[in-house]
Amino acid sequence: MPSRCGASTKRPRSRAPAATVSRVSGRCWNGWPSASDPHPTLHAQSGSAPMARNVLLIMVDQWRWDLSPGLGNPLVSTPALDRLAARGVVFTRHFAQSAPCGPARASFASGQYVFNHRVFANPVPMASGRRLLQHHLRTAGITPYMIGYTTAVPDPRGRDPKDPVFHGPSVAEGWQILREMDEDKAHYTAWARSQGADLDPDYDAGFAHHLRAGAPVETSPQPDGLHDSRWLADAAVAFLDTAPERPWLLHLGFYRPHPPLAALTRHLARVPDAPLLPPIDAAAEDAIHPLAALFRRVVPASIAHPGLDGPASALPAATVAALRKAYLALLAEVDDEVDRVLAALERSGRGPDTLVVFMSDHGEQWGEHGLFGKRAIHQASFRVPLIIADPRPSADPTRGGRIHAITEHVDLLPTLLDWFGIAAPPQCDGRSLLGLIAGDRPSDWRDAAVYEHDFRDKLTGPVPGLARSPHEAQFTAIQDERWAYLHFPDADPVLFDLEADPGQTRNLAADPAFAPIVHRMMRRLLDHRIRHADRTLSEARAAPGGMIGRW
User: What pLDDT sits at residue 537?
Assistant: First the structure.
């Protein structure tokens, strides 16, 4: 059976006995890559001339799957990203491993499911010693550059609680930071104010003051040209204009379309009004599951806009409509800046040897079920866009098309390492997508996605029928093309029929007619957990001559 995190294509491996496999210079050598050529795929396919492969990774925050570029949705005005999709391929069933940002991005960076890396919420640290994307790249001599927003907390063990590292950038060690969008956005607001923008130093407070001063809820206080997406894109353009000749990866992290859901006037004018949502039957929504009812009570309207009060579920229809339109306008804002970045990539002459990836960390509820943000039991929080443009001829079979195989964030680490010719580590739960892009779908490719969500921060104490302790305040879901099954340690499960009920409004788990489906999905979830238990050191062995294997 192929490795769960192996490269997409077979490469020759050493037949040397296990005793000859050793850890050299902090890297595991197991016959591939060879010590004499640690970067075999950094050479042109037609000969031995060096080919400096690069990656432009564009990660946005909170872009939902059904508004993905490249799908022809008339609500979405994203011409630049549509062109990228035409140059590459759109993955139509791609899933984040969790929401919010921290756990989703931890799965991307580690290639692991949340139950393995255990960063289940934004403030939770990543255990030290875990090798992430940037560490693998640095070991291979590839510089990982970071622009924008991410979420990372260092392991506190062995550190003083007042260590400055806990008050510094929220970017994991190992990245070369070019421009940081820190959690309070202070770097951005300081820059905008230095350019003459009349903005509050407090990013969110500026939006609240703008609304309370009488501005329409959907309008942004940021001046056109001094908005945060422009500030981040400017740094990417500057990098690409002088990009080094050696291989690199640039992680460009846009904060948008993350709330506040307020946009520039020209982008609001560019997008249509969002479809009106049907009236919400509060009793029916609450009856889906106790967690659905909890979220409708505790998710605040301020999650969509800091100037709004009360629960999101109580927002007037007109406000919901305005916020939904603003969300569409923020997609257009990001697209405008991506256009500038892609143009800079082409000017640089590096386009033919650069893999371009566009993805979102997690999704957005967009007013559905009376919710904004990502706190929900519905797939819109976890299903997200993914576009990959591979410039090589080997990607021509899928170019301009769509891949419907189920893919996950855990696949991105092995994909990016595969692009650079770096063996994926044993810890990895995903598989490279380059084979799918080349038109080769393995017969054993997954048929379901698994994602998790921890909601302990929304509880003030035990909730009978939902969670008796903080460690039980979580669910794990498995979702295939038809069914979504959510399992809770201390609550009844959820089963949605996505074919008959795409809006996920009816929980079928308690219906005896669906008991066989519940049992089957429960078993698949357990099988998945057993197969993907953490293997970080499972291939390492102590031997008389020292430690051998892979790790």
Answer: 81
Residue ranges in 213-304 assigned as alpha helix (H):
228-241, 265-270, 282-288, 290-298
Question: Is residue 483 helix, strand or coil?
Answer: strand
At residue 3, the pLDDT reads: 43
Residues of the chain where predicted confidence (pLDDT) is lower than 50: 1-3, 6-50
- What are the pLDDT digits (tens) for 82-128? 999 999 999 999 999 999 999 999 999 999 999 999 998 888 877 78
Q: What is the CA radius of gyration of the chain?
A: 23
Q: How many C-beta atoms surround the C-beta of residue 393 within 10 A?
A: 10
Angle between helices 186-194 and 203-212 (to 10 degrees): 60
The DSSP code sequence of 20-31 is G--EETTEE-SS
Strand partners, 250: 56, 145
Residue in the structure block whose two tokens are 């794990």: 476
What are the counts of helices (DSSP H) followed by strands (DSSP E) for the chain? 14, 17
Q: Tokens at residue 166, please?
A: 């806990």
Contact present, 74 and 272 (Cβ < 8 Å): yes
End-to-end CA distance of the chain: 20
Give the model's pLDDT for residue 208.
98
**Pairing between strand 248-253 and 143-148?**
parallel
CATH homologous superfamily of domain 52-451? Alkaline Phosphatase, subunit A (3.40.720.10)
Q: Whole-prediction pTM value?
A: 0.89
| Integer Cα distance of 458 and 62 in angstroms | 20
Q: Which helix (H) or strand (E) holds 547?
A: strand 546-549
- Which token pair is 146? 């970071």
**Type of residue numbered 361:** D
191 CA to centre of own chain: 27
User: Cβ–Cβ contacts within 10 Å for residue 39, how many?
Assistant: 17
Rounded-to-integer distance, Cα 135 and Cα 149, Å: 19
pLDDT of residue 42: 38
Rounded CA gap, 497 and 110, in Å?
31
Token output for 512: 């005896």
Query: How would you list the strands of the sheet with 483-487, edge to edge?
Result: 449-454, 474-479, 483-487, 494-497
Domain boundaries, the chain: 52-451
Q: Which residues are catalytic?
A: 101
